[in-house]
Amino acid sequence: MEQEKRILNEELIEKYWKYIGVGISFKYFPIVIKKSKGCRIWDIEGREYIDFLTSAASFNIGHTNDEVVKAIKQAIDDMIDYDQYLYHEPSIRLAEMLVNIVPGSYEKKVLYELSGGAANDMALKVALAFTGRKYIGSFEDSYHGTHYLVLSSSGSFKPETRYKYNAYPYVYFFKYPDTFRRPRGIEPEEYGEILLGEIERTLQVDAYGKGFAAIIFEPIQGDGGVLVPPKSFIVGLRKIADEYGIVLIDDEIQTGFGRTGKMFAIEHFGIEPDVVTLGKNLGAGFPMSAVVGRKEIIDSGPPNTLGSNASGHYLGSIAAMAGIEYIIKNRLHDRAELMGEYLMKRLNELKDGHEIVGDVRGKGLMIGVEIVDDKDSLKPSSKKAQKIIWRAYENGLIMMTFGKYGNVLRIAPPLTIEREEIDKAVEIMEKAISDVEKGKVGDEVLSKMVAWQ
């Protein structure tokens, strides 16, 4: 029986690479997932794993949440979906809920899409329409999706990749504060002020300052390696946007719905963006995303020019409401702060005991562990990071690497994780790190992963 399951696993992976295009192929481990529940997943061969990846921070409420499953089962006999040509109640109720919980003391409206990237793309479209301008400001090493405007505006893509897709040409990339790798002798707040000054100088040039429609940013940069900016940097962005009449777009795709210890990460910084984008956790496992923002900005897009056939999906809206209600009822944002403090403490103990752990950073349960050659040089080591996650996978823990150098371990478990699961996961991480330091994980594993570069 085990042999049959192993053969099936291999056959399915072989068929994946035969039938599915490489443009959406980004696989770390040779396992086919069969089941997921809470903080754990099981592969087709029956092996169990603690999940520190959660589909790139997409299951804050835990896998296959009982409340969401119950809500879907109660609704699915009535209808699966109906498109935008007629009304249905769940999408209207969800919009009302989002308007009430998303930060902003102004009148807000909602637009729906199916993915975080599509939501970000739509946010940029309405900013262009609202301002009548053409320039977009973004940040180096940012990630906002793969739709046209956001692929063009994602600093994590290499210039040649953007060129290959004939990217939107009117995008300017600013520097985002990486306080771990800031210049020597400069404090984090001072570094943020220096970078704000660079943005100001760019905007003071007439061709830019009068032409910028939007600045899109992540309140904590995710795929750049969990970069937590100084508070004054985000406050300064708001001031700059106000000064130049620029739409400030807060990308909460990764950070929203409690992940960082607040319902939305922007709450750590005390400002109100003009537009907030939501995805991943919004649908509680269904493909759902939304743009929530100032009424006058959201309504600047003419009818039938935004969204897609399944935007505001009937069952997706029901799942989203059930997921949000679960977060609020169980105060998962507070739980993320509490469990995040404990996990950060345990990870800092790893840092103190291992030469290749250079930094531990984050907020709540959005954490990055930066792997280096050694603490003296702090040279980034993507190879060591990949070897660590491979050995962790072999021992029952799923993580991935990301960051501007591909050397940061991404830690994003469900917010429902228990302390015992954290302890077990850290135990696995420590063994993996030790094995890599001792040379027990060979270079051959590097060719087995399609990893973040």
From TrEMBL:
The keyword Transferase applies. Its cofactor is pyridoxal 5'-phosphate. Keywords: Aminotransferase, Pyridoxal phosphate, Transferase. It holds the Pfam family Aminotran_3. It comes from the Archaea. GO terms for molecular function: identical protein binding; pyridoxal phosphate binding; transaminase activity. Belongs to the class-III pyridoxal-phosphate-dependent aminotransferase family. This is 4-aminobutyrate aminotransferase. It comes from Fervidicoccus fontis (strain DSM 19380 / JCM 18336 / VKM B-2539 / Kam940). The lineage of its organism: Archaea, Thermoproteota, Thermoprotei, Fervidicoccales, Fervidicoccaceae.
